[in-house]
Design goal:
single chain; mainly beta; 8-stranded mixed beta sheet; 5-stranded antiparallel beta sheet; 10 helices; 45 strands; 36% strand
Length: 728
């Protein structure tokens, strides 16, 4: 369930195209130079020489009446490069800092002014230039505005927005589970804006109680549809910037169950929109073309899956902020499907009647890195031979050639790239379990370092024999083979028996077994687990988001809390046969979905797991949001028995070992109600356990002075007390 939005065992769960990419390096259009913020300046570096040119100096960002320049959180240029938007004074909206102030800079005249002056400070979201550079659109207070660049005149385009009636952005569930945040798009001719409207007026509020920020407690309502509740209805509108008149698109939906629109973009012209329409169960997807003037729509591409259809952000995170890959002058587009058992990319004709497989072979496309139609190449990540690793490949866009691996064969591990739009250059980050992260710039396709051959130098000098980390596979008696890592104690003595600590996540998000430096670290443990004499292990069961094909990932459909748990337990039974494992000292821990797995393992297999630490866990699957839970488990009205069988509270009566349960009372993701439901069940059966509530902390339990140190000490003290370290 949910995504853990912090660093967990070396992974960032969580989780940059046209609309509003996150902060960081920015390519120029030619793909031969990049922009970078440094010491308050925005610099342009030409490749491969790395000659620097300051495009925006901090002296140009001095706010009138202040002696300090703007603090740049992010920046965007107009299409002609003459003007810039500077994003600053940001505020978090649930997960990311998507609300703040935008300042407009004329680079030539050095004139600087704050956009939306009549609106509340730090209230603007997703500001972006119109394609002609004459206006800037943005959202404030759930309404859409367009501001004239030359005059500063502000035109309000929607007027009915409020907390429960949302224009141009999204409610909690859409943001969390579909990665939808920026909810409006300029038309190519700059005359209209297409946008989402989310109607949460009939969506029940989850009432979160804040007991700490005032003398009297107060309520923080969150529009949060739990499993079984209908989604907040959507509409797609096209508003005329000149008249503020909106035309609504005619998109069919189930009047009872409702449905979702997860993607919406303009086509290659200003007359049509293309959208992805998902059924409530998320197992039927239709791509529709909508006439922006009449609102009429028709389906061009239909797909069904017995389990579910994956969110597009899984195979191209850039799409979370907008974009659609059109080719051949708008006659074709790129699309992903698992129809042949693997996640592959297809070229689909505009009318959806013909398609061509671009990526071929028994492997999954993990991510799109770049599409260069001029040279005819697609750059993507894959790892056909090892699901714990990742490599850069390219293939012809017409699907005529087999994929070509560009990552060097001597660099075994995990590679991450930021490939230029033309595929000429890329940033390259590499690590594996025994090599710390190293970065370089490379030219492609030869993958030649242009700044010192850093990676090859580090790889040549690395000595994996000094690492006490092992990557291996474990096969259960059922014949299921799973990837795993193990960290052995320092000065390991095979004649002794050591305590074993399993780290788990297990759900359809959050791969834990990645061949990447730090993936086996335990950030909560206060000290060094290996030095103290623990064996640490993590295993990726069936259903985890691995590049092992559709069947592996979707075998968990309707079986969260069952299949993942039985796989983990079956693997643990094999490991407990090892002569150096102390079967009386076996612990398990996890956060979020891993916390739920910890509870299920402790309750369903008390003969294996003697100590458990569950953090921010979902006690009952009936409590989580509808998009996530229904995607993987079906509607509870139709799959009630599956929800019951998968929920930890169903098995709480079986607790035998030592359990520490931890939850933040301000958790907007896995609500604190889960804790109280579980506590009641444990109390009912007279089970002794320990519980820690962190007042007004969210899902990451990081807010407040001393919180992280306290949590680390609590975790470590409990583990040492009930699963003592050291060989015996």
């Amino acid at each position: 369930m949910g995504k853990v939005c912090f660093l967990l065992a070396g992974l960032l769960f969580i989780f940059i195209a046209q609309a509003q990419p996150p902060e960081g390096m920015r390519w120029n259009k030619a793909g031969d130079a990049y922009y970078q913020v440094e010491n308050g300046d925005i610099n342009l570096y030409q490749l491969p020489s790395f000659i620097k040119k300051t495009v925006v100096s901090k002296s140009m960002l001095m706010v009138p009446g202040s002696n300090k320049p703007l603090d740049i959180y992010n920046f965007f240029f107009s299409a002609d490069g003459t003007k810039a938007l500077i994003y600053t004074n940001t505020q978090k909206v649930w997960r990311y800092n998507t609300r703040g102030d935008y300042w407009l800079l004329d680079i030539a005249t050095k004139q600087l002014r704050r956009l939306g002056k009549k609106l509340l400070a730090s209230s603007l979201m997703f500001a972006k230039f119109s394609p002609d550079g004459k206006k800037v659109g943005y959202v404030s207070g759930n309404n859409i505005y367009a501001e004239d660049v030359a005059t500063g005149n502000i035109a309000q385009l929607t007027f009915d927005g409020n907390r429960k009636y949302i224009n141009g952005t999204f409610d909690w569930a859409y943001e969390e589970e579909f990665f939808c945040r920026d909810g409006f798009r300029w038309s190519p001719d700059s005359k209209r804006i297409a946008y989402w409207n989310i109607d949460a007026r009939n969506t029940k509020d989850y009432l979160m109680i804040n007991n700490t920020d005032s003398i009297y407690p107060f309520i923080k309502p969150v529009e949060y549809p739990i499993a079984g509740e209908p989604p907040s209805p959507f509409k797609i509108g096209v508003v005329d910037v000149a008249t503020a008149a909106t035309k609504w698109m005619d998109i069919p939906t189930d009047p009872v169950l409702q449905s979702y629109v997860t993607r919406m973009e303009w086509t290659d012209n200003s007359d049509e929109l293309v959208i992805q329409h998902l059924s409530r169960r998320q197992n039927v997807s239709d791509l529709l073309l909508c006439n922006a003037t009449t609102g009429a729509s028709h389906a061009i591409y239909h797909e069904e899956d017995p389990a579910w259809i994956d969110n597009i952000a899984l195979w191209d995170p850039a799409y979370s902020y907008g974009g659609w890959d059109w080719f051949n002058n708008g006659k074709e587009f790129l699309w992903a499907s698992e129809k042949d058992g693997w996640r592959h990319l297809y070229r689909v004709s505009r009318d959806g009647k013909t398609e061509k497989l671009v990526t071929t072979g028994n492997y999954d496309v993990m991510n799109i890195d770049a599409i260069d139609e001029t040279s005819g190449y697609l750059y993507f990540d894959a790892s056909p031979g090892n699901a714990t690793q990742k490599y850069l490949y390219r293939t012809r866009l017409d699907g005529s050639t087999a994929p070509e691996r560009l990552s060097p064969p001597n660099q075994v591990g995990s590679h991450d790239y930021e490939v230029s739009p033309t595929g000429k250059y890329a940033t390259h980050n590499f690590s594996n379990y025994y090599i710390p992260p190293v970065k370089e710039w490379v030219s492609l396709p030869e993958h030649k370092s242009i700044d010192g051959d850093n990676v090859n130098r580090v790889v040549a000098n690395a000595d994996k024999s000094k690492s006490n980390i092992e990557y291996f596979t474990i096969k259960t008696q059922e014949g299921v083979e799973m990837d795993a890592w193990m960290v052995k104690p320092t000065n390991f003595d095979k004649s002794k028996k050591y305590p074993l600590v399993f780290f788990v996540y297990t759900e359809p998000w959050g791969q834990t077994v990645i061949d990447r430096y730090g993936a086996s670290d335990n950030f909560l443990y206060n000290g060094n687990m290996s030095d103290d004499g623990y064996i640490s292990i993590s295993i990726d069961n069936r259903g985890v988001l691995l590049p092992k094909g559709r069947q592996w990932r979707k075998s968990i459909s309707h079986k969260i809390g069952q299949l993942n748990i039985s796989d983990q337990a079956a693997a643990a039974r094999e490991i407990l046969k090892w002569p150096f494992v102390d079967t009386s000292r076996v612990a398990v821990w996890g956060w979020s979905g891993g916390g739920s797995a910890t509870l299920n393992l402790m309750f369903q297999y008390p003969d294996i797991y003697k100590t458990g630490i569950a953090i921010a866990a979902e006690g009952s699957q009936f409590t989580y949001d509808n998009i996530y839970q229904e995607r993987y488990m079906g509607l509870p009205q139709e799959s009630r028995e599956d929800y019951i069988k998968g929920s930890p509270i169903t098995y709480a009566k079986n607790l035998q070992g030592h359990l520490l349960y931890i939850h933040g009372t301000g958790d907007d993701n896995v609500h604190y109600k889960n804790a109280e439901l579980l506590l009641n069940e444990l109390i009912k059966y007279n089970k002794i356990f320990q519980f820690m509530a962190y007042p007004n902390r969210t899902h990451g339990i990081f807010e407040g002075e001393g919180t992280q140190e306290h949590l680390s000490n609590l975790y470590t003290t409990y583990l040492k007390q009930y699963c003592p370290p050291g060989g015996r």
